[in-house]
Amino acid sequence: MDTAKISFLEKKATEIRKKTIEMIGYLGVGHIGGSMSIVDILTVLYHDKMHIDPGNPKMRDRDRFVLSKGHAGPALYATLADLGFFPEEWLHTLNKGGTNLPSHCDMNRTPGIDMTTGSLGQGISAAIGIALSMRLDKIDRNVFLLIGDGESDEGQIWEGALAAPQFKLNKLIAFTDYNKMQIDGYTRDVMDLGQLEKKWEAFGWFVQRINGHDFTALSTAIDTAKKQAERPSMIICDTIKGKGCSFAEGVISNHNMAFTYEQAQEAIALLS
Ligand SMILES: Cc1ncc(C[n+]2csc(CCOP(=O)(O)OP(=O)(O)O)c2C)c(N)n1
Questions:
Q1: 3-state percent breakdown (helix, strand, coil) of the chain, nearest 5
Q2: Which residue owns the Cα nearest ligand 1 atom 16?
Q3: Which residue range forms the structural domain that includes residue 126?
Q4: pTM of the complete model
Q5: Which of 7, 70, 180, 206 is a Cys-bridge partner for 105, taking CB atoms 3.0 to 4.6 Å apart?
Q6: What average pLDDT does the segment 236-260 reach?
Q7: Is 90 exceeded by the pLDDT of residue 218?
Q8: What mean pLDDT is predicted for residues 14-39?
Q9: Ligand 1 atom 14, closest CA
Q10: How far, in Å, are 13, 78, 80 from residue 16 at the CA level?
């Protein structure tokens, strides 16, 4: 990836981080940690890899994205608003009465959201269904799926892990946001994922492990995954929960944090 592209993505990711912090700060509480850790993955997908049209969110011939850890909706909303899927002012309505931006993703409310999520584990099954239906409809596009490491405690994740290779879903490209934290503490203490790469490999997936904040690594991994002829892909991304938000980064209590609009502004100023 050339330096101009990298600096463009860096700029975009910073804007998305600022909007995510501001949106949650405006509400006063939200999933800041797990939102900030996925911003770079979203930035590469939405600004470099995905075939989408903000003016036509339901375009038939589009790539799909399933945010299975649906509580990280704010980061995706910031990404979609920045692209023009809906007006930026909507960001100030996050999770308020009558909003089109509920805290967890809802495909019936928000332009650009491809699947309703929030009940952990379900996104992988939805993504598999979407990939199968796209194959039937002869739509030659990818389904991108993002799961959490804590979410990987769900049995449904491993049902999906078993099913996707069975159907040879090479168009399914998944990411694990491996930020090593979940709602109750460190992943290693709650439910150690052990040798995660070997687990996905054993289920028949093409597995890569990268730094989930490195745009070049993300871009290369996605391009490599796209070349798979039969196997679905899992890209395990080492990330930092809360990345880029001064008061939340790496803090174990950052899962669903309360903070003021003023605190948000201070954190945003540090990103400038
Ligand atoms: C089926 C289900 N059980 C419990 C929850 C509550 N919950 C929301 S987020 C979360 C932790 C998820 O951890 P992880 O996937 O690591 O997310 P991250 O730390 O990246 O935000 C839990 C238990 C839920 N949303 N769905």
A1: 45, 15, 40
A2: 150
A3: 3-271
A4: 0.98
A5: 70
A6: 97
A7: yes
A8: 98
A9: 150
A10: 5, 5, 9
Residue 243 beta carbon below 6 angstroms from any ligand 1 atom: no
Distance, C-alpha 36 to centroid of its chain: 10
Atom 23, ligand 1: which residue's CA is nearest?
Answer: 183
| Element of type H or E holding 181 | strand 181-182
- The edge-to-edge listing of strands for the beta sheet with 233-238 is 64-67, 143-148, 172-178, 233-238, 206-211
Euclidean distance between CA atoms 23 and 3, whole angstroms: 30
**Which residue puts its alpha carbon closest to atom 25 of ligand 1?**
119
The closest-lying atom of ligand 1 relative to the alpha carbon of residue 150 is 16
Distance of CA 88 to the CA centre of its chain: 20
CATH number of the domain within which 259 lies: 3.40.50.970
Distance 44 CA to ligand 1 centre (A): 24
Total domains in the fold of the chain: 1
CA atoms within 13 A on the CB side of 51: 10
Question: Burial level of 210, CB count in 10 A (0-12/13-18/19+)?
Answer: buried
pLDDT in tens, 129-180: 999 999 999 999 999 999 999 999 999 999 999 999 999 999 999 999 999 9
